[in-house]
Amino acid sequence: MNEKPNRRSFIKTGLATAAGIGVLSQTGVVTNAGKLIAKVTRSTMPKRKLGKTGYNVSLFGLGGQSTVEQPDKLDESVEIINRAIDLGVNYIDTAAAYGRGISEQYIGEVMKHRRDEVFLATKSHDRSYDGTMRLFEQSLKNLQTDYVDLYQVHNVRTQNDLDRMFADDGVMKAFEKLRSEGAVRFLGLSGHRDPSILKKAIEQYEYDCLLMALNAADIHHAPFQYELLDAAVKKNLGIIAMKIPARGRIFREDGITTMEQALGYVYSFTISTAIVGITTIDQLEENVQITRNFEKYDDHKLNDIAQLTAHYYEDASWYKMQW
Fold first, then answer.
1. Which domains does the chain have, with CATH numbers?
2. Is 98 annotated in the active site?
3. Residue 166's CB: how many other CB atoms inside 10 A?
4. Which stretches does DSSP call E strand in the chain?
5. Structure confidence by residue, pLDDT tens digits, 244-294
6. Tell me: the pLDDT tens digits for 139-190?
7. How far lies 61's CA from each of 18, 43, 91, 222, 267, in Å?
8. H or E segment at 161?
9. Helix or strand or coil: residue 276?
10. Is 60 exceeded by the pLDDT of residue 306?
11. Burial of 18: CB neighbours in 10 Å, binned 0-12, 13-18, 19+
12. What percent of the residues of the chain are helix, what percent strand, and what percent coil, each to the nearest 5?
């Protein structure tokens, strides 16, 4: 990590412990345990630059959803978060809206001991100045820290969102004040509905980072990987990918069948990191091992993988703009 600022479904996993046992992988497909990866131990995690921030972040990032946003899952969540950091994951993403604060609270239980080891991102779903300032204070309390590395406008979808964000009493005024005070280091936005709206937003304001949807079904409808991604790369934004498994909907026996395909597809684009919500430690370790073994896919392989989703892309892109 760089120097800190002055201010303080389908996704059920099972890795084999003995060869020859049939188990469920993240895809939900029964596989032979002898072909699954071994338990992961500490070693080097691939890293990439987070755009103009200058940070080197882990290619695999921990998303604050799944187990980490569920009630009565504190112990499991703390174990997942600690294990992720131990394995070299140094990018953690959450939001005030995840579990209505539960995700931030669980992450905060780890941050009070390991804050300096991660680049921490959270989000405001409020579009106003006053509402965002209130949310941010609660986020700091939940996360048990006095600053966040990246503060993002959550789920930007429409022109109305943009109008409200940039109003005189809008969220961007709050973001700029928090950054000027050192409570926030970098500013960003997130969205998974309409790439044209996100493109307009990053052309309207000099953000540091963009959290955007990208998976192997993206190409078939309202793709994020073309004009939006190109514009973000030209602006040297830190690009964070999400919706990689689409809450498990990317996986089908007659389509994408492995997390290696799902992650490898996304990793082959010009992104900084990809965030995934985790259900179990075994799932985390499988994803980390896939990341460590990753080699960039060529255009032919990318096309082949994308075509596997052609007959069910609407389900695998359920989060996008109205059909």
1. 40-316 (3.20.20.100)
2. yes
3. 15
4. 22-24, 30-32, 47-49, 56-58, 60-66, 91-93, 119-124, 148-153, 184-191, 209-213, 238-242, 273-278
5. 999 999 999 999 999 999 999 999 999 999 999 999 999 999 999 999 999
6. 999 999 999 999 999 999 999 999 999 999 999 999 999 999 999 999 999 9
7. 29, 16, 5, 25, 12
8. helix 159-165
9. strand
10. yes
11. exposed
12. 40, 20, 40
* Distance in angstroms (rounded) separating the CA atoms of residues 63 and 276: 5
Catalytic residue from among 98, 106, 151, 297: 98
Distance of alpha carbon 144 from alpha carbon 115, whole angstroms? 9
Q: Convert the pLDDT of each residue in 220-234 to its tens digit.
A: 999 999 999 999 999
pTM: 0.88
Residue of higher predicted confidence among 10 and 175 = 175
Give the distance, in angstroms, between the CA of residue 274 and the centroid of all CA atoms in the same chain: 5
Q: What is the DSSP letter of 228?
A: H
CA-wise closest residue to 103 among 88, 87, 123: 123
Q: Can you read off the two tokens belonging to residue 248?
A: 């498990």
